Amino acid sequence: MKLREPTAGDAERIHELARSAMTASYSLSPQQIENVTTDQFAEGRVTDLVDASDDRVLALEDEEFDTLVGLTEGHVDGSSGEIRWLLVDPEHRGKGVGTELFETIVEKLREDGAERIDANVLDADREGAQFFEERGFERTDDRQVEYGGESLVEHRYTLDASEREMSDDTGEDIDRRK
User: Fold this and answer.
1) Closest CA to 15 of 32, 50, 40
2) What is the pLDDT of residues 12-31, one digit of tens each?
3) Angstrom distance (rounded) from CA 118 to CA 87
4) Higher-pLDDT residue of 161, 114
5) H/E/C letters for each residue in the chain?
6) Which of 110, 117, 120, 126 has the CA that lies 20 to 30 A from 57?
């Protein structure tokens, strides 16, 4: 697996990846999924995303099959980082793809000055909520969002730098909350 920044040439695969990941995990109708993926992952939007200097977009490529198997998008505003999307191809789940993308995007957001990290998870994505909760995030807010004419509930999960679990050089976990 190779971690890299996506290019505009990846736009079609990113749209397919988003559709596939959402179909497998989200409690949304096929039309809702199409509306969300077209709004957020259509070719023009992906091109804007990969060209944006203030966004961090990372993809994980399966070099054996020469295809993207995961994607994450994040952004920093002041001392707040935000993970907007974390998507993994259903055929590559359980292989560490999501964890690698998550750990890398958090590291990049911290490098960009984020002291607090927020993760946005649609209510229809129960697996996503569980993923962030297992990593120490707490649900802190709910809001209505609109993607492609679809009004959906989105939950915000937060991890403060002072509360996150770290590991030292020996690999032992250090709980900074104590």
Assistant:
1) 40
2) 999 999 999 999 999 999 99
3) 16
4) 114
5) CEEECCCHHHHHHHHHHHHHHHHHHCCCCHHHHHHHHHHHHCHHHHHHHHHCCCEEEEEEEECCCCEEEEEEEEEEECCEEEEEEEEECHHHCCCCHHHHHHHHHHHHHHHCCCCEEEEEEECCCHHHHHHHHCCCCEEEEEEEEEECCEEEEEEEEEEECCCCEEECCCCCEEECCC
6) 126
Pick the CATH number of 2-167 from 3.40.630.30, 3.40.640.10, 2.130.10.10, 3.30.420.40: 3.40.630.30
Ranges of each domain in the chain: 2-167
Q: What's the rounded Cα separation, in Å, for the pair 78 and 115?
A: 9
Banded pLDDT at 66 (limits 50, 70, 90): confident
Query: What is the CB neighbour count within 10 angstroms for residue 56?
Result: 22
Closest Cα to residue 167, out of 75, 103, 98? 103
pLDDT score for 53: 66
pTM for this model (two decimals): 0.84
Exposure on the CB side of residue 18, measured as CA atoms within 13 A: 24
